[in-house]
Amino acid sequence: MYILDTNIIIRFLANDDEEQSSVAYRVFEKAVNGEFVFLLHPLVVAECCWVLESKRYGYTKGEIASKLKQIIEASCVKTTGKEVVEKALDAYARCSVDFADAYLSALVEHTSSIQGIITWNEKDFRRLGGECYMPESII
């Protein structure tokens, strides 16, 4: 098993560097053919969102979520906290919020022992439907 880094996913999706994109494509091809498995961590998903929505790449949140979900769904990819990541990508695209906020909201919803999120960014978390608290309200 190999951990996928952001730059491999970016080269694979954006095809913006001929040499590296070609290598990234071949790496994915070998994995799809069963030669090895990838581990995808939520931090890498977050960084992919950040990079792909930058001015350099200009992808929409919907495009990013769709492309990353295709990678997550591949049989050669094992994603840490897959259900939470998929739910976060859906919310990221649907609610037009940062992936980190969408991820935290999905994590709260998925984990019964978490009471909510402490934040001053109430607007985004309310849009996500998550339980959130202003710091002043819990002291």
> Could you tell me how far the N terminus lies from the C terminus, measured between alpha carbons in angstroms?
45 Å
Number of strands: 5
Indicate the mean pLDDT. 95
Unreliable stretches: none
- With strands numbered from the N-terminus, the spatial order across the biggest sheet is 1-2-3
In DSSP terms (H or I, runs of 4 or more residues), the helix count works out at: 7
CATH class of the largest domain: Alpha Beta
The second-level CATH architecture of the largest domain is 3-Layer(aba) Sandwich
What integer value in Å does the Rg equal?
Answer: 16 Å
Q: Based on helices, strands and strand pairing, what is the structural class?
A: mainly alpha
Question: In percent terms, what proportion of residues is strand?
Answer: 5-15%
Shape: elongated
Fraction in helix: 55-70%
Largest sheet, strands/sense/barrel: 3 strands, parallel
Question: How does this model look, in words?
Answer:
It comes from Geobacillus kaustophilus. This is PIN domain protein. Pfam families: PIN (PF01850). Residues 2-129 form the PIN domain. The structure is a single chain. The strands form 2 sheets. This protein has a 3-stranded parallel β-sheet with strand order 1-2-3. The protein is mostly helical and 139 residues long. Strand 4 (117-118), helix 7 (122-128) and strand 5 (132-133) form a beta-alpha-beta unit. The chain is 58% helix and 9% strand. It is elongated. The longest helix is centred in the N-terminal third of the chain and has 15 residues, at 18-32. The chain has helices spanning 6-14, 18-32, 42-52, 61-73, 82-95, 99-110, 122-128, and strands at 2-3, 38-40, 77-79, 117-118, 132-133. The chain has 7 helices and 5 strands, in the order E-H-H-E-H-H-E-H-H-E-H-E. It has 2 domains: 1-80, 3-Layer(aba) Sandwich (Rossmann fold), CATH 3.40.50; 96-139, no CATH class. It starts with a strand and ends in a 6-residue tail after the last strand. Helix 1 (6-14) crosses helix 3 (42-52), helix 4 (61-73) runs antiparallel to helix 5 and helix 5 (82-95) crosses helix 6 (99-110).
